[in-house]
Design a protein that fits this description.
By secondary structure, this protein is of the alpha+beta class. The chain has 8 helices and 21 strands. The chain has helices at residues 32-38, 93-102, 155-158, 195-204, 211-225, 246-255, 273-279, 308-326, and strands at 7-8, 20-21, 24-27, 47-49, 55-56, 65-68, 73-78, 82-88, 127-128, 131-132, 137-144, 150-154, 175-185, 233-237, 243-245, 262-263, 268-270, 286-287, 290-292, 299-302, 335-336. A 5-stranded antiparallel β-sheet has the order 7-8-13-11-12. The chain has a 4-stranded antiparallel β-sheet with strand order 14-20-19-18, covered by helices on one side. Strands 3-6-4 form a 3-stranded parallel β-sheet, with no helix packed on it. A hairpin with a 2-residue loop joins strand 9 and strand 10. Helix 4 packs across helix 5 (211-225). The radius of gyration is 21 Å and the shape is globular. It binds uridine-diphosphate-2(N-acetylglucosaminyl) butyric acid. Uridine-diphosphate-2(N-acetylglucosaminyl) butyric acid binds at residues 128-129, 225, 236-237, 240-241, 260, 272, 274-275, 278, 283, 296-298, 333.
Length: 337
């Protein structure tokens, strides 16, 4: 007889959904992967969680859950200009950013305050304020759960795209990422091209701007718009910003002159999903214990007693409404289990 679903996953997902599983295995060191492999754990299709910050749990989980808590930060290589810093996959992302900022190693500062852990960052190529993980990525090490061997993935191997990588596509569910190595600048460049950061820094009238200032500006902007998962359950942007044809974007912009767009190439333009959701009337909408955040329409929230199935239904209703009103289909950014 199978053990009942008795272990709550509430502490393991930033939405705070109280779904249950039967067994959890904590991975503290990469050598434990061999034991897991030999015990047949990987043949039972386990689910892997690290920070649980990009995850919508809609039901109890019947397969084993592995929680990746591999820690450690070390310098793997240094040149005159760059520092190659390796992080265990279970290192919390924001603490890792703070570590680099304190040492004045540049590159991660615009990605301050993103929830989650290091190992999940490459899977969806996290990004914010004009920087994506791919811009600072050197390589990662991952355990192949079919062969039981470790493999190294360089920049090209990861096939990074907008909130996308090989680990969300052809190599999905086949690897446990154990270590991520980032290439940081010893002489940091401040990247303030994303308007909001420059505006916050201008208001401070600083004579010289450091990466610590840029990091503080990003933290300030994020705190003013995005709910803290410790207070209101959420998983950041629930939807991806859609890439549509330049023609369709031009038509929309002539109708709605306030609509921002980010050309990707001659033919395609990315537009803010938050704008579509807000203009379809959903910003601040609440249905029972779940809703759309009042300050950022991309973020769906759990006010406390909501369920993943309710958020999933809300997301589908928003997607359908946006499709009907704007003829644009929104993709989900979060993983739905
Ligand atoms: N906007 C609205 N309504 C809103 C919010 C935004 O109309 O409620 C419009 C405004 O025109 C605004 C534009 O959307 O100028 C862009 O807004 P914002 O700068 O907040 O960025 P975003 O496109 O909504 C993306 C990322 C965020 C990231 C920010 C900042 C995605 C799916 N989201 O949001 O990432 O922090 O840019 O770089 O790409 C995440 O992935 O979890 C996440 C929070």
């Amino acid at each position: 007889m199978n053990a009942p679903n008795t272990i709550s996953l509430k502490p393991y997902n930033t939405f705070g959904f109280d779904v249950h599983c039967r067994e959890i295995h904590t991975l503290n060191h990469k050598t434990e992967l061999r034991t897991f492999f030999e015990s047949g754990l990987f043949a039972r299709n386990p689910k892997i969680i690290s920070g649980g910050s990009n995850l919508l749990l809609t039901q109890n989980i019947d397969v084993p859950v592995i929680v990746n808590r591999i820690k450690g930060i070390s310098i793997s290589r240094e040149t005159e200009e760059h520092l190659y810093l390796s992080f265990g996959a279970g290192e919390p992302w924001h603490e890792s950013v703070m570590y680099a900022v304190e040492h004045n190693w540049g590159g991660m500062e615009n990605l301050s305050l993103i929830p989650g852990c290091m190992g999940a960052a490459p899977i969806q190529n996290i990004g914010a304020y004009g920087v994506e993980l791919k811009d600072i990525f050197h390589e990662l090490k991952a355990f192949n759960i079919q062969t039981g061997l470790f493999e190294t993935f360089g920049l090209e191997d990861c096939k990074f795209g907008y909130r996308d990588s090989v680990f969300k596509n052809e190599k999905k569910n086949q690897y446990v990422i154990t270590e991520v190595c980032l290439k940081l600048d010893k002489n940091p460049q401040i990247r303030t091209q994303y308007g909001d950061i420059q505006a916050v820094l201008d208001a401070q009238n600083l004579s010289e701007i450091t990466i610590a200032d840029a990091s503080r500006a990003v933290i300030h902007i994020r705190q003013s718009k995005l709910p803290d998962p410790a207070e209101i359950g959420n998983s950041g942007s629930f939807f991806k910003n859609p890439v549509i044809s330049a023609e369709q974007a031009a038509a929309l912009q002539s109708q709605y002159p306030g609509l921002k767009s980010f050309p990707q190439n001659d033919k395609e333009t990315k537009i803010p999903a938050a704008w579509l959701i807000e203009n379809a009337g959903w910003k601040g909408f609440r249905r029972g214990e779940v809703g759309v955040h009042a300050k950022q329409a991309l973020v769906l929230v759990n006010y406390g007693k909501g369920t993943g199935a309710e958020v999933h239904q809300l997301a589908q209703d928003i997607r359908e409404d946006v499709r009907q009103k704007f003829n644009i289909t929104l993709d989900f950014e979060v993983n739905i289990w």
